[in-house]
């Protein structure tokens, strides 16, 4: 087991380095001179040169990348911003704040969006999927299937504003979606995030209902389920003790990917509800061509995806003994 | 078995029809009949009536009391971004300058009286400074009793140090006027001649005969140097408390408030500075006990919260956030909100540079101005209240000496006059020219481009629109030999006199890559007029000279003026004394009190 | 609890095979049918599939006949009616008539701001979405299939290399990278002097969506090929000395058409959504090209005062994507009856 | 309902009537392409303690019949007529819960492919113990001991450690032994083995069949052995039932049916099987054609399209009338050829091939 983890973590690190390298060089494909932002309205060429030197932009590309990478472990001192302690992803060109602090500061928003949505997705999605499989062909199954097809076809940027318009503006049932520190006031935190959770879960849950249903039905057609029936196991225990385990594997895989995308900052959701999560940070980084922030957000997003892939593989071994972590 | 999906198709149809019906009964998605805006009183974006230089008497504190104001309470500020810089030497943005006014004081500053006229008065200095040789040497004497937040006195040494540190290598974002004037050789870059105080060297062009007096020896006469030192960029920094780069996040206060906490990107909290002496300050009040500032709210959000006016938003104001353009109509129809609204003309003017090196024929340039669809552009960006009045000159009305003039009859025909433009083109070398119009690819600018293409093509001018990535816009138009003919520009004078409104943009000798003279205008007659205007000591005379230069530039048709930008903002019902600062064009915090 | 035991499938399957067998008795003329015909028979009997196919074809027709519709309707998507004719938009750019300015001559109302006709914008918008989605689906499927098969069939170092590329691509936060790549590809393809034509952004969007899209198809195909490679009939083909190309095209491909087509029909609506998402985030097609994504973007900023504008693209996109999803489901069921439950 | 005593040589028939009696059973599935008549009026009996071999090509309805005994069909798509009597209990009409109590307890079943028939997610011990706990209410510890005991009985080495292994850690033969252990854990009266040895190679096949015989001797379990391999039937079964197109074609004791077959289909089966005694160069004669479509089975005798002797019957009986098993007990067959004709053809034909 540990050898598996070590190998996978090393592989993950290689991928993260690869991604940061690609993002770094991609960024330089843009004809944008970030130094410009550090020079006043009237910017004599001499000052522009000085700023480029301060930002280390006068060094060759790979050296700049190496400085960025080593800064994560040993920290770095910028003439333009001052010292940057160990987990240093540099300073944002747009807001002059340390990138790492910005991400850590924005992470709770994305985290609460993700947790809320995943709880609803998993519980509601899988539950309806199971019920639809249990009552296959009956009215409940038909309703679940048709609503899940409709749900899966909705787009966040359509449903979001619509829900806000009706629920908040017209009916005033719920406050406008925003983020309130969970630690300060859990109730308002919950109420203010209800709409984003609701919208996000409508779309994601639909997929999980459809997937759970088809997986459960596929498992129920397996030979070993027939054997269980032949052993006198009741229909209910066959359904809940035998069939669901097989069905969980593909669902975990997909959930790993979805969770990672949410953790990486659901850009469209945060844009629709103007939530200041990592997604918005990423969009601003692109609009301001803010390399350090962009690199930081990409690496954090990729790390979430890669880390969750490892977790999913480990989970496989728990559920399916045939999977050996060699 | 698969019949269960038979009903899906019918379910979808029902849902679709339902949604459309729902929309029908919604409270009318349309804008409704024209809101009778015409019947509304015309917006009083009046220009600043007069800018004068105050006397020593005007410079003495305390500032006149605001009617009905009472101390106490906490004033909240909600806005879009955190302040990128608070170290005076790195402040150039008006947004940063507005908050710095609460804790950074300069030698001189502006005082607005009830009638709306502006006076330059001494802030830390007893008066607006004295010069005997036409502006080459300037003497300022500090007031008694001006102290830092720890109670230590502000000395002439601190003022000298504040100017010296502007030469350090980490101070690059602020203004560069004083630095380029305080070095012996004006032609060479100032950073090569002095590297800052951190290696023990001093700048000998600044003398401090005693603790109270500071004498500046400039390398050329600058009669409006007393306006220059009013910039936040030249605010005082204590020699003992200079934390270099970290000073940018938590500066040491010489004003009525001191910074208690600053969580970057999130919030800034200020409390009273016990050592600030009201009698030494003719400009600032300090009614609220605390200021709490919160960031991360786009203008749509702050507009919604001001309209809702609930809870702590009652005591909230905003420096920068205007009313969101798409909500302007809603606010204008809301009399209660209008009671807590602010309107005013900002020093910002926007215009379209015409690259005189590529569009060489003046008649073509004149035709472009004549055919320009100013009215449509104004309507596209939210009308006069949200974006600005249609401009016809280079200088903004907020600048001393502004004279209204409309050489191309834009106010008469704001929709553009294709016929007159065609006539001008007939007299030009190219009857139907092709111009390359570069624009910043934002949603608004894309709509503007469509309107411009329509209007100019009606006048026979063929427009090639070149979208530029919004991040690389300035990099693309920066080089002198860029391949674009017309591109958008915006400018604000650093102080309300003609020199910073015109010289950096139209002085032929300042043309260079990434320099501000984007229209590359190089007319000897204008260059000499600029030098001549720079030597006039009397402000009103200087104003007339700059107005004449303004007309000459418009005759050259170097730019298509767009707007004198206006500000339209809201604040909470629980605050009094929220006023519009015409110098910076944002809401001022200096007279605020909590009801 | 209803519990479909496997025997139904087995006998059912036997029955179907026997149907295929040419038992020459006097019962109903049972004629042999190829898998393709079988698939078509099953698909024809699946009414939901037929209805969704009809809706999809309707959308395709509308997209094709857009100029005809706009000619018959009398309006075109690019003229800014609101700006040119007074009395349509009020001073702040909102349509004066209620419900988004729906009226006799503007059936779906006017776009706030520029005042363009919503109906023609929608109709031409389908054209943009479908063309981009089709191109990207075809491209990413072709790339995905080729790389998936080579890495699955060839194995060894190549498989490892392609596998790592796929892992890296899938590890990119895709939404973020769509926004980053479009300006980068734009800058790379930029033409210095004349106006950058609309096709430039069209090409860069296709490139970006394909680059980030093919990895999932490749991974699916690789898994399919790995499982098929072990089967006896592949060993048999190899033993008879068939060249790898012949094995792949004659032996493997026939078995792969089902997953390929299923993956493509389910991917297409996703690409339509992604393209609209780009428009919503402001990196989609430029203003001059009608695009649903941008209609959503404008809609989401003006919905306070004009919610109707948002509904038109929203509902049409909803129906469009549902039809595609249902069509994908029906095709999958027709192709692969085992999972038809 | 007449109960006929059934005399058979080796069986120890103790009970008054047959242990398991299937009366005119027919099972129809509604599928996309029409109604499939998998079983079409089948009747047979099984004596207690004996082994009945059911033989037939795939699609002849042998598995369906036995799954009906356990009531494992999906009622939504299946119509079942006729009766199945297990001693005094009627199964077709029985309620779900009674059937559940019966399955694994009195009637057990083992399947063809042990790998897919065992749950990959649970250990062997747990899967065996589950049945014991379900029917005997044993606690976890007792169930585990019972599982170890059963594993030992079916001949699996070190049962104490193997009990905690997963199915994929067992070899083919071992897995089938585990299946048998699981089926017999509650000492069922009837064991239905659906092609237990087809997935195994020949050597393991023999071990499994011997194991089944030993267990039958030890516990007197009645076994129904479903197979398409006549060799397996010959070596293990007491009686044989040959099925074709959902009906019984021929039934009787192993010796009667295999040495003196009377139905053309049985001849076909026997002649398509290589024998040690027959010479190598004599070609095998498989039954021509393929099994009939159960969607619309041929009229009259379902075998007539493939029967070489239908014209011998003279009238077009074979093409119009469906033959029934005659005589109902003892060695019966469903064919209109007279006994004499059958004996002549058999001696004429089989002698040539013997």
TrEMBL record, chain A:
Superkingdom to which the source organism belongs: Bacteria
InterPro entries named in the record: BPD_transp_1_N, MetI-like, MetI-like_sf
Compartment list: Cell membrane
Keyword field: Cell membrane, Membrane, Transmembrane, Transmembrane helix, Transport
GO cellular component, one term: plasma membrane
Keyword Lipid metabolism: no
Coiled-coil portions: none
Signal sequence interval, chain numbering: none
Transmembrane segments annotated in the record for this chain: 9-28, 115-137, 149-168, 188-208, 242-268, 293-319
Record-level GO BP terms: transmembrane transport
Similarity comment: family membership: Belongs to the binding-protein-dependent transport system permease family.
The name this protein goes by in its record: ABC transporter permease
Species in which this protein is naturally found: Planotetraspora phitsanulokensis
From TrEMBL, chain B:
Leader sequence residues: 1-23
SUPFAM superfamilies: Periplasmic binding protein-like II (SSF53850)
GO CC list: ATP-binding cassette (ABC) transporter complex; periplasmic space
A GO term, aspect molecular function: peptide transmembrane transporter activity
Database matches in InterPro entries: Peptide/Ni-bd, SBP_5, SBP_5_dom
Single Gene Ontology BP annotation: peptide transport
Domain Solute-binding protein family per the UniProt entry, residue ranges: 119-508
Keyword DNA damage: no
UniProt keywords, alphabetically: Signal
PANTHER family tied to this protein: ABC TRANSPORTER SUBSTRATE-BINDING PROTEIN, PERIPLASMIC BINDING COMPONENT OF ABC TRANSPORTER
Protein name per UniProt: ABC transporter
Automatic annotation (TrEMBL), chain C:
Residue ranges constituting the ABC transmembrane type-1 domain according to the UniProt record: 126-328
Matches recorded under SUPFAM superfamilies: MetI-like (SSF161098)
GO cellular component: plasma membrane
Transmembrane segments: 49-73, 130-156, 168-190, 202-221, 260-287, 307-328
Keyword line: Cell membrane, Membrane, Transmembrane, Transmembrane helix, Transport
Main location: membrane
PROSITE patterns: ABC_TM1
Family membership: Belongs to the binding-protein-dependent transport system permease family.
Protein name: ABC transporter permease
Lineage: Bacteria, Bacillati, Actinomycetota, Actinomycetes, Streptosporangiales
UniProtKB/TrEMBL annotation, chain D:
Location in or out of the cell: Cell membrane
Record's keyword terms, sorted: ATP-binding, Cell membrane, Membrane, Nucleotide-binding, Transport
Membrane-topology annotation of the record: Peripheral membrane protein
Superkingdom: Bacteria
GO molecular function, one term: ATP hydrolysis activity
Family: Belongs to the ABC transporter superfamily.
Protein name, per record: Peptide ABC transporter ATP-binding protein
Taxonomic source organism: Planotetraspora phitsanulokensis
């Amino acid at each position: 087991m540990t050898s598996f983890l070590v190998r996978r973590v090393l592989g993950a690190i290689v991928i993260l380095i690869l991604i940061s390298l690609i993002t770094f060089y991609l960024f330089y494909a843009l004809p944008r001179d970030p130094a410009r932002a550090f020079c006043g309205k009237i910017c004599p060429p001499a000052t522009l040169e000085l700023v480029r030197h301060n930002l280390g932009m006068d060094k060759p590309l790979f050296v700049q990348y190496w400085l960025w990478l080593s800064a994560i472990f040993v920290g770095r001192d910028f003439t333009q911003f001052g010292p940057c302690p160990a987990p240093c992803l540099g300073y944002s060109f747009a807001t002059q704040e340390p990138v790492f602090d910005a991400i850590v500061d924005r992470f709770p928003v994305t985290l609460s969006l993700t947790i809320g949505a995943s709880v609803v997705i998993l519980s509601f999605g899988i539950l309806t999927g199971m019920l639809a499989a249990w009552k296959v062909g009956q009215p409940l199954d038909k309703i679940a299937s048709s609503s899940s097809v409709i749900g899966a076809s909705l787009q966040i940027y359509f449903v979001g504003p619509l829900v806000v318009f009706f629920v908040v503006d017209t009916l005033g049932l719920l406050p406008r979606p925003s983020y309130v520190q969970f630690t300060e006031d859990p109730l308002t935190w919950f109420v203010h995030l209800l709409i984003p959770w609701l919208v996000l879960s409508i779309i994601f849950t639909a997929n999980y209902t459809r997937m759970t249903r088809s997986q459960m039905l596929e498992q129920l057609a397996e030979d070993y389920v027939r054997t269980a029936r032949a052993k006198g196991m009741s229909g209910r225990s066959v359904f809940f003790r035998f069939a669901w385990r097989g069905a969980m594997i593909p669902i975990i895989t997909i959930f790993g990917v979805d969770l990672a995308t949410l953790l990486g900052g659901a850009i469209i959701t945060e844009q629709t509800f103007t939530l200041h999560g990592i997604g918005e940070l990423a969009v601003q980084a692109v609009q301001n061509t803010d390399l350090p922030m962009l690199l930081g957000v990409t690496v954090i997003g990729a790390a979430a995806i890669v880390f969750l892939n490892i977790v999913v593989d480990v989970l496989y071994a728990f559920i399916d003994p045939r999977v050996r972590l060699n | 078995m698969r019949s269960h999906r038979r009903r899906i198709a019918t379910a979808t149809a029902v849902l679709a029809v339902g949604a459309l019906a729902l929309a029908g009964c919604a409270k009318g998605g349309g804008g409704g009949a024209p809101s009778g805006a015409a019947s509304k009183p015309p917006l009083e974006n009046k220009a600043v009536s007069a800018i004068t230089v105050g006397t020593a008497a005007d410079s003495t504190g305390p500032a006149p009391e605001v009617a009905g104001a009472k101390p106490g309470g906490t004033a909240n500020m909600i806005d879009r971004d955190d302040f990128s810089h608070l170290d005076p030497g790195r402040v150039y943005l008006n947004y940063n300058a507005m908050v710095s006014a609460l804790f950074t004081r300069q030698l001189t500053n502006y005082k607005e009286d009830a009638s709306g006229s502006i006076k330059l008065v001494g802030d830390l200095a007893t008066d607006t400074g004295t010069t005997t040789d036409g502006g080459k040497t300037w003497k300022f004497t500090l007031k008694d009793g001006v102290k830092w937040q720890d109670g230590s006195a502000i000395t002439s040494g601190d003022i000298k140090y504040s100017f010296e540190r502007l030469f350090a290598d980490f101070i690059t974002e602020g203004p560069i006027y004083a630095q380029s004037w305080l070095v012996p050789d004006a032609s060479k870059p100032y950073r090569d001649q002095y590297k800052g105080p951190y290696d023990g060297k001093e700048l000998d062009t600044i003398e401090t005969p005693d603790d109270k007096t500071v004498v500046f020896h400039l390398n050329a006469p600058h009669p409006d140097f007393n306006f220059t030192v009013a910039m936040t960029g030249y605010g005082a920094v204590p020699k003992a408390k200079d934390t270099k780069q970290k000073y940018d996040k938590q500066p040491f206060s010489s004003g009525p408030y001191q910074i208690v906490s600053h969580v970057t990107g999130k919030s800034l909290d200020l409390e009273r500075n016990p050592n600030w002496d009201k009698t030494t300050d003719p400009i600032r009040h300090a009614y609220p006990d605390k200021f709490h500032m919160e960031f991360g709210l786009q203008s749509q959000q702050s507009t919604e919260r001001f309209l809702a006016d609930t809870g702590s938003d009652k005591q909230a104001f905003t420096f920068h956030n205007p009313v969101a353009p798409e909500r302007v109509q809603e606010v204008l129809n809301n009399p209660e909100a209008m009671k807590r609204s602010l309107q005013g003309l900002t020093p910002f003017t926007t215009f379209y540079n015409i690259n005189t090196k590529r569009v060489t024929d003046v008649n073509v340039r004149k035709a472009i101005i004549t055919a320009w669809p100013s009215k449509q552009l104004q309507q596209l960006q939210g009308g006069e209240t949200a974006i600005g009045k249609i401009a016809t000159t280079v200088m903004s009305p907020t600048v001393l000496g502004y004279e209204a003039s409309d050489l191309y009859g834009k106010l008469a025909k704001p929709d553009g006059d294709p016929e007159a433009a065609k006539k001008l083109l007939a007299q030009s070398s190219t009857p139907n020219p092709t111009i390359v119009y570069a624009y910043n690819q934002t949603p608004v600018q894309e709509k503007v481009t469509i309107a411009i293409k329509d209007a100019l093509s009606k006048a026979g001018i063929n427009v090639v629109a070149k979208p530029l990535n919004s991040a690389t816009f300035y990099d693309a138009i920066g080089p002198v030999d860029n391949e674009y003919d017309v591109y958008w520009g915006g400018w604000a004078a650093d102080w309300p006199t003609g020199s910073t409104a015109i010289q950096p943009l139209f002085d032929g000798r300042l043309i260079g890559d990434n320099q501000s003279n984007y229209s590359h205008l190089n007319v000897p007659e204008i260059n000499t007029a600029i030098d001549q205007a720079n030597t006039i000591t009397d402000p009103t005379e200087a104003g007339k000279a700059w107005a004449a230069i303004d007309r000459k530039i418009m005759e050259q048709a170097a730019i298509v003026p767009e707007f004198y930008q206006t500000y339209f903002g809201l604040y909470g019902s629980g605050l009094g004394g929220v006023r519009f600062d015409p110098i910076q064009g944002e809401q001022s915090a200096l007279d605020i009190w909590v009801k | 609890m209803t519990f479909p035991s496997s025997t139904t499938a087995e006998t059912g399957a036997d029955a179907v095979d026997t149907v295929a067998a040419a038992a020459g008795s006097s019962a109903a003329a049972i004629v042999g049918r190829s898998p393709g015909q079988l698939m078509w028979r099953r698909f024809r009997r699946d009414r939901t599939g037929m209805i969704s196919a009809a809706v999809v074809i309707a959308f395709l027709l509308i997209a094709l006949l857009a100029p005809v519709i706009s000619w018959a309707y009398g309006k075109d998507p690019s003229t800014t009616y609101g700006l040119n004719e007074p009395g349509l938009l009020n001073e702040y750019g909102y349509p004066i008539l209620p419900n988004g300015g729906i009226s006799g001559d503007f059936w779906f109302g006017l776009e706030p701001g520029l005042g363009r006709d919503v109906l023609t914008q929608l109709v031409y918008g389908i054209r943009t979405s479908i063309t981009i989605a089709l191109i990207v689906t075809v491209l990413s499927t072709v790339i995905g299939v080729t790389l998936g098969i080579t890495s699955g069939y060839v194995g060894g170092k190549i498989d490892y290399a392609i596998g790592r590329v796929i892992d890296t691509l899938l590890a990119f936060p895709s939404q973020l990278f769509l926004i980053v790549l479009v300006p980068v590809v734009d800058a790379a393809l930029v033409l210095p002097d004349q106006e950058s034509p609309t096709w430039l952004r069209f090409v860069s969007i296709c490139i970006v969506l394909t680059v980030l899209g093919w990895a999932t198809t490749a991974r699916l195909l690789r898994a399919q090929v790995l499982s098929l490679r072990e089967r006896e009939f592949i060993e048999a083909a190899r033993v008879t000395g068939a060249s790898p190309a012949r094995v792949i095209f004659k032996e493997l491909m026939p078995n792969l058409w089902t997953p390929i087509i299923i993956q493509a029909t389910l991917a297409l609506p996703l690409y339509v959504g992604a393209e609209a998402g780009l428009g919503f985030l402001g990196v989609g097609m430029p203003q001059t090209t009608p695009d649903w994504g941008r209609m959503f973007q404008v809609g989401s900023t003006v919905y306070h005062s004009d919610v109707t504008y948002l509904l038109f693209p929203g509902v049409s996109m909803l129906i469009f994507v549902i039809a595609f999803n249902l069509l994908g489901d029906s095709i999958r069921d027709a192709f692969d009856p085992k999972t038809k439950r | 309902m007449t109960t006929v005593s059934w005399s058979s040589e080796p069986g120890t028939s103790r009970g008054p009537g047959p242990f398991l009696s299937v009366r005119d059973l027919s099972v129809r599935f509604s599928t996309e392409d029409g109604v499939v008549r998998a079983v079409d009026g089948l009747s047979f009996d099984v004596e207690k303690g004996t082994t009945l071999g059911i033989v037939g090509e795939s699609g002849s309805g042998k598995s369906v019949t036995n799954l009906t005994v356990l009531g494992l069909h999906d009622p939504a798509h299946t119509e079942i007529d006729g009766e199945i009597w297990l001693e005094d209990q009627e199964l077709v009409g029985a309620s779900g819960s009674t059937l559940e109590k019966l399955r694994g307890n009195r009637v057990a079943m083992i399947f063809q492919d042990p790998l897919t028939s065992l749950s990959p997610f649970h250990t062997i011990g747990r899967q065996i113990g589950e049945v014991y706990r379900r029917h005997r209410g044993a606690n976890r510890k007792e169930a585990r001991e019972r599982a170890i005991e059963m594993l030992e009985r079916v001949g699996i080495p070190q049962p104490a450690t193997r009990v905690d292994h997963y199915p994929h850690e067992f070899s083919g033969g071992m897995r089938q032994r585990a299946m048998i252990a699981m089926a017999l854990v509650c000492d069922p009266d009837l064991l239905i083995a659906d092609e237990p040895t087809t997935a195994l190679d020949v050597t393991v096949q023999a071990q499994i069949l011997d194991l089944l015989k030993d267990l039958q001797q030890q516990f007197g379990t009645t076994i129904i052995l479903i197979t398409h391999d006549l060799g397996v039937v010959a070596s293990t079964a007491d009686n044989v039932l040959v099925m074709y197109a959902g009906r019984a074609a021929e039934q009787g004791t192993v010796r009667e049916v295999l040495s003196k077959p009377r139905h053309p289909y049985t001849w076909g089966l026997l002649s398509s099987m290589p024998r040690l005694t027959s010479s190598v160069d004599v070609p095998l004669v498989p039954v021509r054609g393929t099994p009939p479509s159960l969607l619309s089975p041929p009229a009259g005798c379902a075998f007539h399209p493939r029967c070489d002797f239908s014209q011998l019957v003279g009238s077009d009986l074979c093409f119009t009338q469906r033959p029934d098993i005659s005589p109902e007990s003892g060695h019966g067959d469903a064919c209109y050829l007279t006994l004499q004709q059958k004996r002549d053809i058999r001696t004429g034909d089989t002698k040539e091939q013997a």
